[in-house]
Task: inverse folding
């Protein structure tokens, strides 16, 4: 992985090329103030006052050049406003002229992410270094970008290299690095204690056995926070098998676990004063003679029964057992992340996280953080009248509402809510964590979504 500390450095007056920023309001005045050679260069490069447009401006000598880029608002920089430059400029060192880059440092770093695990060609690009006069912010930005890179790497990896054991190994590394306690439940203990996790993962076979991965960290006297991530390392759909087109990206069905692991690392590395409990139910939803079946009635850790109405609605099953376990620790806050439903994507598209919460204050805190961090989310309702759609004729509930294609993200969230203890503040993030096309700072493929917003909300709540 790229050494990000080389890409963001304190400004100590070292040699660097200047980056000038303008927006639609200031463009004409800026252009008029430039010498003829700069105006000619801007015209030759067809510079217009539109987002991410940029141009190289000549100076007095052949090597004396600078850069101008157009941003949405010069008074309020976004995380992504310099990201295009970080992708396209020649290698070298740069500083923003006349102001600090602030939040744009994050996009500068994430724009230089490359996933090269499987590449044999050597097309490594030289680093583009950004200078800042706010050295106190460097460590936090580097930590956040490093965690983002790790999340992307975990999700981008092929399922053959990212099984339940690989998620366990990643969790073990984080726990060791920050003094956390790792607990892994598998085998007969999993059968007895977490029957839904076992049922979903038992068909995967030797070497890819299901397990519950937990990390506990922090002072027991601090507020207890549970973070839970869906860890379906590959989802065939089970016996209700997906078509090939629906299975193509299912290596990313462990994206929720990558986010839980990433948020846990942010908490531990920053020494946030909480008692952290991170849980990842890790399974592969495979097809074999051991596969669970439509119509099977599953026991749960909570003690209620679930009629399996669809083997492709497996994520909520494993989360149900994990949420129950998290609730036994009496947390005051519970957050889960899951690539749970296609219905959320139909409603919101790939860029918006679907947010569900059982507490308005918590929801507003998360939405406010999402807006301030340019990490967008949209709240969807826990609509109580839809709860009856989970009724079963033979068990306490079904896992997927039958007979209707409507409200799938809501009924999935309502299923999860049944396992959340009374009085616990809970938020559920239905995420996609994949970009079908690239944007500046956000290449095609895996991405961290809702991470920065959730981290800000946690810092605002506990960091003081």
Result:
């Amino acid at each position: 992985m790229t050494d990000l500390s080389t890409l963001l450095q304190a400004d100590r007056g070292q040699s660097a090329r200047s980056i000038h920023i303008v927006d639609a309001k200031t463009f004409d005045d800026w252009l008029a103030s430039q010498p003829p050679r700069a105006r000619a260069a801007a015209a030759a490069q067809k510079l217009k006052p539109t987002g991410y447009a940029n141009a190289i401006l000549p100076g007095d000598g052949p090597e004396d050049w600078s850069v101008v880029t157009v941003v949405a608002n010069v008074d309020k920089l976004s995380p992504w406003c310099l990201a295009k430059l970080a992708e396209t400029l020649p290698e070298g060192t740069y500083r923003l002229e006349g102001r600090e880059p602030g939040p744009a440092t994050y996009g500068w770093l994430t724009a230089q992410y490359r996933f090269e695990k499987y590449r044999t060609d050597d097309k490594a690009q030289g680093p583009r270094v950004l200078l800042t006069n706010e050295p106190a912010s460097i460590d936090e930005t580097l930590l956040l970008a490093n965690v983002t890179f790790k999340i992307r790497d975990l999700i981008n990896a092929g399922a053959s290299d990212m099984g339940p054991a690989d998620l366990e190994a990643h969790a073990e590394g984080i726990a060791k690095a920050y003094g956390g306690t790792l607990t892994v439940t598998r085998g007969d203990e999993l059968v007895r204690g977490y029957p839904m996790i076992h049922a979903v993962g038992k068909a995967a076979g030797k070497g890819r056995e299901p397990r519950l991965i937990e990390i506990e960290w922090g002072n027991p006297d601090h507020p207890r926070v549970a973070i839970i991530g869906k860890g379906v390392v590959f989802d065939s759909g089970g016996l209700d098998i997906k078509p090939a087109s629906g299975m193509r990206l299912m290596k990313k069905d462990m994206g929720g676990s990558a986010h839980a692991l990433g948020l846990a690392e942010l908490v531990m590395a920053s020494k946030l004063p909480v008692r952290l409990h991170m849980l990842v139910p890790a399974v592969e939803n495979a097809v074999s003679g051991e596969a669970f079946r439509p119509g099977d009635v599953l026991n749960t850790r909570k003690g209620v029964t679930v009629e399996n109405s669809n083997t492709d609605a497996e994520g909520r099953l494993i989360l149900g057992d994990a949420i129950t376990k998290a609730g036994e620790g009496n947390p005051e806050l519970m957050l889960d992340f899951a690539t749970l439903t296609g219905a959320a994507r139909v409603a919101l598209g790939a860029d918006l996280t679907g947010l569900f919460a059982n507490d308005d204050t918590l929801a507003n805190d998360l939405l406010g953080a999402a807006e301030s961090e340019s990490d967008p989310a949209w709240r969807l309702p826990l609509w109580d009248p839809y709860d009856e759609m989970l009724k079963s004729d033979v068990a306490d509930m079904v896992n997927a509402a039958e007979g209707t294609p409507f409200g799938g993200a809501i009924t999935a969230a309502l299923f999860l809510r049944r396992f959340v203890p009374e009085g616990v503040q809970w938020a559920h993030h239905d995420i996609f964590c994949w970009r079908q096309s690239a944007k500046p700072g956000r290449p095609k493929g895996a991405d961290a979504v809702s991470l920065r917003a959730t981290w800000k909300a946690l810092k605002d709540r506990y960091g003081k």
Observations:
- The chain has a mean pLDDT of 96.
